[in-house]
């Protein structure tokens, strides 16, 4: 084994060693050693906060270290799943209602949020009413989804604050990708609630519409909460660490894949261009890039294909 291979192996083992799988009860001396309190622990000179801080940290960071930690992990997993399910299903047409506008003339115009009304027109003895959607973007999810997300995000915020308060390194904690995702997800939810409550009745103004679109775009980060499950499922954690340990090899594979994609895109473009076929689909190299990606990944949509013999030979080689 060369020195480089030995060094890479040691780095991989170090990464795997850092992944605490929590297969057994945590040892107090190791726990206090992490916080630099081993001397105080051995001399029995710990303050109340110094005693509680490592144990609270273990409850929230080591899912299998105790019964309390398992309960916290179970609540977190349930909240992650419920929040993502609510986030996805609230966009389904079956669970949304439009914001409707009642108009009876130039001097009477009311906008309301309806969950049971349908588009229709009706009349009374003195007025004729027309119901129509006031804004194509103004659809209202079922209130149950808001309550589910609210409860889940209250738990997420509580969990995040506790973990930040008991961490041994706040800066390292805040730089963690999972924690950055959590910060963005919590901010996106409360921003959406603020925008919805603040501009709920102002559909005609462009500023609220832009704000709602921006908040909805930011809310996509909530789906990335699925990565939090890697903290609780050992198999996912090992998979992530495997990708991390093999990052150089994967980047090298992606690099060569990109090189061949560009190469075959250029070759098929000129092969079809010189064939003078009237049904040429490859009008530029960027279009050839799409064909090369679809072909090399063996997806094969069939939306475009070479017509010349040279292009077909290239397609066979590309596959």
Itemize the secondary structure elements and their pairings:
Layout (H helix, E strand, L loop, with lengths): L2 H16 L9 H7 L3 H5 L5 H14 L5 H23 L6 E10 L2 E6 L7 E3 L4 E6 L5 E3 L1 H24 L3 H6 L1 H22 L7 H13 L15 H12 L1 H29 L9 H12 L12 H10 L1
Helix pairs in contact: 1-10, 4-5, 4-6, 5-6, 6-8, 8-9, 11-12, 11-13
Describe the structure.
This protein has 319 residues and is an alpha+beta fold. It has 3 domains: 3-46, no CATH class; 67-116 and 127-232, Voltage-gated potassium channels. Chain C (Four Helix Bundle (Hemerythrin (Met), subunit A)); 238-318, Orthogonal Bundle (Helix Hairpins), CATH 1.10.287.70. The chain is 61% helix and 9% strand. The chain is built from 13 helices and 5 strands. The chain has helices at residues 3-18, 28-34, 38-42, 48-61, 67-89, 143-166, 170-175, 177-198, 206-218, 234-245, 247-275, 285-296, 309-318; strands at residues 96-105, 108-113, 121-123, 128-133, 139-141. Strands 1, 2, 3, 4 and 5 form a 5-stranded antiparallel beta sheet that branches. α4 (48-61) crosses α5 (67-89) and α11 runs antiparallel to α13 (309-318). The longest helix has 29 residues, at 247-275. It is flat. Mean pLDDT is 76; it is low at 107-136.
